[in-house]
C-alpha cells in the first residue's frame, strides 16, 4: 500500500468508505477493551500468589538482627528488605529507605517535603514566587499531576532516542535558579520505552544547576522489567555516577515492587546519598513510626534474593512479550509504509508510544472509544494534558488477554487509518 | 506512713538513707526494663498470628464487588474494610477512607495538605503569618511533634477529669482566627486515660471557631481498647454530634488497627463529612493510586466483623489488665497516703499518667534510668517537651512481661519517693 500522503482525493474517499465499513463491523461487536493503564494482567498477578504462603502462624517473623516485624519501629526498613531492594536498585543498602506500598507516594512526599521544608536547609518552595520542573516529553502523567498539584511550573523537554535533550537541560538548569527538579524515567521510559544512553546519564550526573536544591527525580520504575533475555538495556547507575562526578547529592532514585509482586501491595524505596537520607529522615520520623515490616519480610522470604527476583521477572516477561509483539506486529502489518504514524518497539517496561499525524491523537482515541477500546487520554503524556502536536498516544498492552489485545490493536490501527484519511482529505 | 510533707528533717534524712540503700540494691541487679512506649507485648502480638493464615495461594483475593485486591486501584479502600473500620469508628462506611499502615501518617498528611493547599479552599497555611493549634495537656508527643515540625504554634489547654478545659477552648477559637485545630485523644486519652464527658463532646461539636478552616483532630486511637468487660467508657460519636449541631465539617476522626492486629502492619482510616472527604480525595489522588488492599482484605477475613474484633480486643485486655493493675497496685501500696504524687486508673488505652511534686519529673525519670528502667522522657507529654510544672510522667505498662513490670513499677515508686524526700529537704 502506498503512503497516504500520495493518495488522490478519490482514492482517499474510497479508502474512507472501506475503512468506515470495517469500523462499523467492530462497533457492532459491542466490545469493552482497555489499553489505558500499565496494569499487570491476571496471569501476571497469579505468578505471585506464592507470596500469600511464605508467612504463616508457624513462622518466626523476626529479622536476623532480632527485630520483631510485628511490632512498632524501624523507620527506614528492615535490613533484609534494604538488601533486596538495594540489589534491585544497584546501590548499597546504606543508601536505601524502604517505604510503604507505592513509589508514587514517595515521590509525592518528596515534593511535598520540599514545598514545606525545602531541601537540606534551602528555602521551602512554598516561600518562593516561582518553582519550575523540567519534564521530558512524552512522559508519565502522574508525575506531571504531582507537580501541577503543587503549583510547580512545568517545562517540556523533548525526548530523543538517547533520552531527554541534554543540551537544553544543561542550559536551563544553569541559568534558572527556580528550576528545582527534573522528572526522569530513565529505563524503558513511560511511554516510549527509551533507555537513557551512557552519555545522557553521564551528562545528567554532571549538571551544574543554579539551584542548590535542584534534584534529579530518577524514577527507575522499570529497573528489572525486561521483555527479552537477550536484549536488555543497561543504565549507568546514577548514584555512583553522581558521586564520581562530584555531585553526590544530586539525585533521588525511586523504585518499587509494584509490577513485580502485587501493585498496591508491594514495597517502595528511595535510594540517595547519605546527606539526602539524613534530610529525609528528619521529616520521616514525624510522619510515621515505620512502614509495614511484615510485608517487607514477606517480600524477602518470597524472592529470597535478587536472583530470585530476576527469575520471577522472566516469568512476567514470558506473559508480556507476546502482548508487546502482538501490538507491534499489528501496527507494522496495518500501518507499515503508510507514513501516518510511528511507534516504539521497546525491550522492556509497560508501554508502546505511538505518534500520529499532527492533530490526530485526540480523534484517534475518541474513535477507539466509540468502538469499545479505551486508550490513555490523548495529551496525558504531556504536562497540563497539552500535547502541542496532538500526536502522542500511549499504548498499554499489559492488561488485556492476548485475544482481546489483538482486537484492540486492530481497532486502534483502523482508527489511526480513518483519522489519517480524514487528515489528508482536510489538509490536501 | 505519714505524708512526706509532715515529716521532720531528721525523719526525711533517715528515710533518704533507707531509700538510697534500697535503690542501690536495684542498681546492683543490672536491669534493662522499658515502660517508655505504648508497644503491645509479644503475648499480644501472638494473639494475631492467625492473620498470617487467612490468605493463601488457594484463596480468591477478590472483593464482593469484583475488585481484584492484587491489582492497582481503589483510592479510598475496599468496601469490606470500610465497613469493618466504620463499625469500629461508629460511623457510616461512606464517611471513611482506608489508608495505609499508620494513622499517625494520616494525621501528618492531613496537616501537610492544609499547609500546602488549605482546607476546602481556604488559604494554604504556609501563606499565613501565624498558625496555631490547641493542645490539651498532658497529651501525645507525636501529635506535638507534627505541629512543631510545621512551625505551628502550640497553646496548652489544661485537661480536667472530663476532658480539656472547654471554657478556654470556646473562648480561644472564637476570638483567634489563626487557631486552626485542636489535638484530641478523646477516649482513654494519652497519657491520662481520661474519656471526654458527654458535655465535653457536645461542646466540642458546637465550637464556633473564627477560622472556617479550623478542624478538630479527633484521634480515636483507643476506640475499642477497653481493659474491662464491665467498666467501659462510651463517647458520644463526634461526627453525628457535629452534624446535629449544624457543624458537619468540623471534625476529622482518625483510627487504626495498630494495637488490634500488628503495629506497623495494620490499616488506618479517617472518618469525616462527605465535604471533607471530597477535599481530601482531591489531594489523595495525586499521592497514591491506592493503599494496600491485600492487607485490607487480610484484616477483613481475619476479624470477620466488628464482633470478631471486639472478641479479639477482649483477649488483648486479658493480657493488659493484669499489667495495669500491677502498676496501679504497686503505686497504691508504695505511694498511697504519702501525698507525693497522683496517678490515673484508666479502664482502657495504653497509659497511666503520673504527676509528681513540682520540679521532680525529670529527676524521677533520670533516677529510673540509672536503675535500668527507661520511662518516656519527662516533658514529652507537653508541646515543645516543656512541662511547666515538670511533674507529669507517662507510664506505659504494656510491653514488659508481668515480672519485669513488677520490678519496673517498684523502681519507679522508689525513685518517686527518693526525689520527693529530696524535694522536701530542699523546700522545707
Give descriptors for this structure.
14% strand, 428 residues, globular, homodimer, Aspartate Aminotransferase, domain 1, alpha/beta, Aspartate Aminotransferase, domain 2, 3-stranded antiparallel sheet, 8-stranded mixed sheet
Describe it for me?
The structure is a homodimer of 428-residue chains. With 428 residues, chain A is α/β, with parallel strands linked by helices. The first copy, chain A, has two domains: 4-44 and 310-427, Aspartate Aminotransferase, domain 1 (Alpha-Beta Complex); 63-304, Aspartate Aminotransferase, domain 2 (3-Layer(aba) Sandwich). Helix content of chain A is 41%, strand content 14%. Chain A contains 13 helices and 13 strands. The first copy, chain A, has helices spanning 9-28, 42-47, 79-89, 103-117, 141-149, 166-175, 198-205, 238-244, 274-287, 293-303, 306-335, 361-370, 402-427; strands spanning 33-35, 96-98, 132-137, 153-160, 163-164, 179-184, 215-219, 251-256, 268-271, 341-343, 352-356, 373-375, 392-395. Chain A has an eight-stranded mixed sheet with strand order 2-9-8-7-6-3-4-5, sandwiched between helices. Chain A has a three-stranded antiparallel sheet with strand order 10-11-13, with helices on one face. In chain A, strands 1-12 form a two-stranded parallel sheet. In chain A, helix 7 crosses helix 8 (238-244) and helix 12 crosses helix 13. Chain A is globular. In chain A, 55% of the residues are buried. The model of chain A has no long low-confidence stretch (mean pLDDT 97).
Amino acid at each position: 500500500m502506498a503512503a497516504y500522503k500520495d493518495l488522490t482525493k478519490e482514492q482517499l474517499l474510497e479508502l474512507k468508505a472501506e475503512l468506515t465499513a470495517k469500523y462499523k463491523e467492530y462497533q457492532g461487536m459491542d466490545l469493552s477493551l482497555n489499553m489505558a493503564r500499565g496494569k499487570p494482567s491476571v496471569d501476571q498477578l497469579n505468578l505471585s500468589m506464592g507470596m500469600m504462603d511464605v508467612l504463616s502462624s508457624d513462622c518466626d517473623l523476626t529479622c536476623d538482627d532480632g527485630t520483631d516485624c510485628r511490632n512498632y519501629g524501624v523507620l527506614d526498613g528492615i535490613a533484609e528488605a534494604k538488601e533486596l531492594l538495594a540489589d534491585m536498585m544497584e546501590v548499597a543498602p546504606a543508601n536505601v529507605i524502604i517505604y510503604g506500598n507505592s513509589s508514587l507516594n514517595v515521590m509525592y512526599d518528596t515534593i511535598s517535603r520540599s514545598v514545606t521544608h525545602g531541601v537540606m536547609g534551602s528555602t521551602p518552595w512554598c516561600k518562593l514566587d516561582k518553582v519550575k520542573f523540567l519534564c521530558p516529553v512524552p512522559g508519565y502523567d502522574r508525575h506531571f499531576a504531582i507537580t501541577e498539584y503543587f503549583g510547580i511550573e512545568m517545562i517540556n523537554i523533548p525526548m530523543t532516542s538517547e533520552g531527554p535533550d541534554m543540551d537544553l537541560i544543561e542550559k536551563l538548569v544553569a541559568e534558572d535558579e527556580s528550576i528545582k527538579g527534573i522528572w526522569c524515567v530513565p529505563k524503558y521510559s513511560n511511554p516510549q520505552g527509551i533507555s537513557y544512553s551512557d552519555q545522557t546519564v553521564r551528562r545528567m550526573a554532571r549538571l551544574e544547576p543554579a539551584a542548590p536544591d535542584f534534584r534529579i527525580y530518577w524514577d527507575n520504575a522499570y529497573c528489572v522489567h525486561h521483555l527479552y533475555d537477550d536484549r536488555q538495556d543497561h543504565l549507568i547507575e546514577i548514584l555512583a555516577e553522581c558521586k564520581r562526578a562530584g555531585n553526590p547529592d544530586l539525585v533521588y532514585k525511586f523504585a518499587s515492587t509494584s509490577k513485580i509482586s502485587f501493585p498496591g501491595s508491594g514495597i517502595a524505596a528511595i535510594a540517595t546519598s547519605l546527606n539526602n537520607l539524613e534530610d529525609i529522615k528528619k521529616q520521616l520520623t514525624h510522619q510515621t513510626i515505620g512502614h509495614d515490616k511484615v510485608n517487607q519480610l514477606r517480600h524477602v522470604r518470597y524472592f529470597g534474593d535478587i536472583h530470585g527476583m530476576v527469575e520471577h521477572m522472566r516469568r512476567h516477561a514470558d506473559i508480556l512479550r507476546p502482548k508487546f509483539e502482538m501490538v507491534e506486529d499489528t501496527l507494522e502489518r496495518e500501518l507499515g509504509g503508510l507514513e501516518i504514524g510511528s511507534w516504539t518497539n521497546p525491550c522492556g517496561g509497560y508501554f508502546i508510544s505511538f505518534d500520529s499525524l499532527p492533530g490526530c491523537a485526540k480523534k484517534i482515541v475518541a474513535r477507539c472509544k466509540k468502538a469499545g477500546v479505551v486508550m490513555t487520554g490523548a495529551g496525558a503524556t504531556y504536562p497540563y494534558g497539552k500535547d502541542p502536536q496532538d500526536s502522542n498516544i500511549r499504548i498499554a498492552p499489559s492488561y488485556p488477554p492476548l485475544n482481546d489485545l489483538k482486537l484492540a490493536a486492530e481497532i486502534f490501527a483502523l482508527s489511526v487509518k480513518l483519522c489519517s484519511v480524514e487528515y489528508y482529505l482536510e489538509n490536501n
